Amino acid sequence: MKISISLPDELVRYVDDRVKNRSQLVERLLQTWRRQQEQEAMVEACLLLDELNDLSNDDEVAWQQAAIIDWEVSGS
Length: 76
Hints:
This protein is mainly α.
């Protein structure tokens, strides 16, 4: 697909002095940016899962402690 973007002349000259194919450069930059976005989303999801897992473990520990106390109090 073709798109049109506006860039400052200075930036276009800079790019033209360094690459043969502007479109290829933009494609590579966008692919890199997309991978970074996906990795950041993955890290965020993993951190959220870890946090949920920690909360779940805290609930499990609290439940076990309550059960032990109840068992000790009942004398069973």
